[in-house]
Specification:
By secondary structure, the protein is mostly helical. The protein has 3 helices and no strands. It comes from Halorientalis pallida.
Length: 71
Amino acid sequence: MSIVDSIRNHVREHRSGMVSDLLFALVWVTLVEVFFTFVDGPQWAYYMFMLAGIVAYFGFFWSLDLAREKQ
């Protein structure tokens, strides 16, 4: 099996998860960019908001898994 076949199989198996990850990242970065366009904050705060996206990502999908388990 070639590397291309391995990548193709991986994408086929995880397509919906990859799309939701990409969508979350795009929305988060867009929100931070829009916020800092209107609020002239320090550069370190901008980077902290971007890093907070990692925590927000795991928190969002963790709570989504909990909600699905309760159904």
